[in-house]
Design goal:
This protein is mainly alpha-helical. The chain contains 3 helices and no strands. The chain has a single domain, classed as 23S rRNA-intervening sequence (de novo design (two linked rop proteins), Up-down Bundle), CATH 1.20.1440.
């Protein structure tokens, strides 16, 4: 996600920025899935993953808002 964000930040156009931010959102969604799976299977204790899951979901909300605002400008 970090590399995609860096690419978005240096995007040459608004559509490119939005597309790269969409890539970030996909990566965050995938991360959320894997963290959920690891917690459900207790590969890592769920209480240790809870803060990471919370932060991932907060980032999903932030990136969703950024994309929506960029599309409406």
């Amino acid at each position: 996600m970090g590399a995609n964000y860096r690419e978005a930040d240096s995007g040459r156009s608004k559509p490119e920025f939005i597309a790269k931010m969409g890539d970030c959102l996909k990566e965050l969604s995938e991360t959320d899935y894997w963290l959920e799976l690891m917690a459900a299977e207790e590969i890592i204790p769920p209480d240790r993953l809870a803060p990471l899951i919370k932060e991932t979901r907060e980032l999903i909300a932030i990136f969703t808002t950024i994309i929506k605002k960029a599309r409406n400008q």
